[in-house]
Amino acid sequence: MVTKIMSIGLKGVEGYRVQVEVQALEGMETFVIVGLPDASVKESKERVASALYSLGYPLVDQKIIVNLSPAEQKKNGPLFDLPMAIGILKSQGFIKERILPNACFIGALSLDGSILPFEGMLAAALSAKRLGFAVLYMPFYEDLPEVKMDGFEIIFVSSLHEVLQHLSGQTILPFFVKKPLNDKEIIFEKDFNQIIGHSFAKRALEIAAAGGHHVFMTGPPGCGKSMLAETFPSILPPLSNEAQLEKISLYQLAGVEFENIHLPSIRNRHHSASSVSIIGGGQNPKPGEISLAHHGVLFLDEMAEFSKKTLDMLRQPIETGKVTISRARSIVTYPASFHLIGAMNPCPCGYLGSSTHYCTCSPKQIQSYQNRISGPIRDRFDISLPIQHVNIETYNDYKSESSAEIRKRVIKARERQTQRYSVEMSNGRVSYETLMLTNSIPEKVKQLITQMTMKKKWSNRVQIKIIRLARTISDLKDEEQITEESLWEAMSLSRAHDDQRVGMRKRG
């Protein structure tokens, strides 16, 4: 008799159904796995046989055949250990109870029958929900957040014996996962109340956080670009339950440790980093920095020093919120919806436009340096933010808002956007069609956009980004419609840097 147990196969973070078919025959003692298994799957037979022997179910004088269907898909990872073991026990009659077809099993076995976590475990769990399974048996993960999914039950198990107990109707002790983080418990090393001055930059970053917009900063060395970027995550809302699961699954697949599952991550890599490390890839494609920054921040300091190839490869992920990596063996897609913050000096010496130092660069050097950031990449930034030095002596009695106060306004603006679009979506990510269908733009605002577009020769992308910025500014003000005041502020934020560049070229 052939026994069929359901499991999940992974291609990146995308999962697909795998039917584990097991047949036990009398004959020479062998264990065969078919269905395009890789080396890690082929080694499962030793782990499964040893785990069953430890529980008192030795495979003596039996030929075990395991087929992983669909046969044309390459199978990888140790997650099929548990369904193989369950299938063997069921086929031999050790499990009398019926196993429901909507139950799914994933887990790696140790030699003593313990069930261990594996790389990509949470990606498989999220895929099981999307594929319509009702019950999932999986190993417990220490940093797992609270999982609540309607119509989907996760049963955490630590050993094969516990699985058999649960299938027979016995109760097993539950694992207690970490509770969601309260706003009072959120502590950041850097806070906006520690930053002196830069009120215009703080306002711009608040708008960027509220609407999911990208920011491009320029300014001389030491003016505070890195400090502002590194403090930016402190005003972002805590991650939702689903976002936490996505974050953990991506970090697991990349084999990278993380500090806090509740808060958005900031990824800051040196400009010498390769395009593969930034975008993702390898022989077996792994997530890159843009995927590890999913729901968080990717900060590219000294952006002009990154290779042109690497920067141009960011163009599609910025627009689509995902990256597809094609290799000879496989094609995988990883999510990559992040806040991009870029920072660079205005010229090779760094002091073009500075009020404290004299620039020693020639106009040709300046132009060549600024052209390292291509026009299409510049167009993908929503906010252009020039930064200048702050005279600390003029701010002796200066008191700035804390990140917690700003974060409350950001969360409120995000809630308005979620209510408007009926899904967790920000103004900076929503499609233009949805943006226009859900927002009525007054005639005066339309006329103003048309006039400024004709004057400034803005592209369609720039016009759309300005509308999105204006919508976010109005959300922060709790306004139903986009106002002229919000539009003027959006235009000043969107093209401030370009206006500054024009002025510098004229002076040069």
Condensed summary:
The chain is an alpha/beta fold and 508 residues long. 38% of the residues lie in helices and 17% in strands.
- Count of β-strands: 18
Number of helices in the DSSP assignment: 19
What Rg is obtained from the alpha carbons, in whole angstroms? Answer: 27 Å
- Give the strand line-up of the largest sheet: 11-14-17-10-18
CATH superfamily of the largest domain: P-loop containing nucleotide triphosphate hydrolases
Distance linking N and C termini = 84 Å
The top-level CATH class of the largest domain is Alpha Beta
For this structure, the CATH topology of the largest domain is Rossmann fold
Which range best describes the helical content: under 10%, 10-25%, 25-40%, 40-55%, 55-70% or over 70%? 25-40%
Description:
- The structure is a single chain.
- The chain is of the alpha/beta class and 508 residues long.
- It folds into 2 domains: 2-167, Ribosomal Protein S5, domain 2 (2-Layer Sandwich); 184-507, Rossmann fold (3-Layer(aba) Sandwich).
- The chain is built from 19 helices and 18 strands.
- The chain has helices at 39-42, 44-54, 81-91, 121-130, 160-167, 199-211, 225-231, 241-254, 275-279, 289-292, 308-312, 315-320, 363-370, 375-379, 403-421, 432-438, 443-456, 460-476, 484-507, and strands at 2-11, 14-26, 30-34, 62-69, 103-105, 108-109, 115-116, 135-139, 153-157, 215-218, 266-268, 280-281, 286-287, 297-300, 322-326, 331-335, 339-344, 383-386.
- The strands form 6 sheets. It has a 5-stranded parallel sheet with strand order 11-14-17-10-18.
- The N and C termini lie far apart (84 Å).
- 40% of the residues are buried.
- Mean pLDDT is 88; it is low at 499-508.
